[in-house]
């Protein structure tokens, strides 16, 4: 094989035309014609040999789910969401995002801005927290939770803060379990009647 490889590499670039095909006088192929037949066979054997060392991929098993694994967090990320009309509905930002699994992402310095989805860039609701876990089982209505503090401001109607919280985007609800503080900037008329 080594001798054949040497012959193939040292053949002239512009051989005479008679040297390309079989030698009619002797009935044998010239070295260039033999090299042309050997090269595809050698390449095929190389590919077959290498295929034994390639780990199986999800494409080989249709039932296998694609998986992502990473140990490094994503720094200073921005994740916008848009509706069918192309208008922004939310913007999730954080100083660090860490992939925990296919349905969970942990975020540091969470800032979630909710937009009306009508083309205006007016923020309807803003949710901020130093740490949070996002659960993405239903990507249209993600949920988030955290043990540390949270603050939610909805336009000029309510400012809620506290600790040990959970947020359901589908229901547009925030549950706060500890140290709850609510501020209503708008005047409350006839609340005690």
Tell me about this structure.
Residues 1-12 have a biased composition (Polar residues). This is LPS export ABC transporter periplasmic protein LptC. Residues 1-25 are annotated as: Disordered. The protein has 193 residues and is of the alpha+beta class. It has two domains: 2-51, no CATH class; 74-183, Sandwich (lipopolysaccharide transport protein A fold), CATH 2.60.450.10. Helix content is 15%, strand content 43%. The protein has two helices and nine strands. The protein has a seven-stranded antiparallel β-sheet, with no helix packed on it. Strands 1-2 form a two-stranded antiparallel ribbon. The longest helix is centred in the first third of the chain and has 21 residues, at 31-51. The radius of gyration is 33 Å and the shape is globular. The model is unreliable at 2-12, 14-27 and 32-58 (pLDDT under 50).
Annotation keywords:
2 domains, disordered N terminus, 193 residues, globular, alpha+beta, seven-stranded antiparallel sheet
Question: Which SSEs are present, and which pair or pack?
Answer:
Layout: H1 2-9, E1 22-23, E2 28-29, H2 31-51, E3 74-82, E4 88-101, E5 104-114, E6 125-135, E7 143-154, E8 158-168, E9 173-183
Region (Disordered): 1-25
Biased composition (Polar residues): 1-12
Protein name: LPS export ABC transporter periplasmic protein LptC
Gist?
The protein is of the alpha+beta class and 193 residues long. Helix content is 15%, strand content 43%.
CATH architecture of the largest domain: Sandwich
**Rounded Rg:** 33 Å
Instruction: Report the sheet with the most strands, covering strand number, pairing sense and barrel closure.
Output: 7 strands, antiparallel
Strand pairing plus helix content: what structural class? alpha+beta
What is the H level of CATH, i.e. the homologous superfamily of the largest domain? Lipopolysaccharide (LPS) transport protein A like domain
Lateral arrangement of strands in the main beta sheet: 3-4-5-6-7-8-9
The DSSP helix count reads 2
Shape: globular
How large is the share of residues in beta strands? Answer: 35-45%
User: Quick check: average pLDDT?
Assistant: 73
Q: Which blocks of ≥5 consecutive residues have pLDDT under 50? A: 2-12, 14-27, 32-58
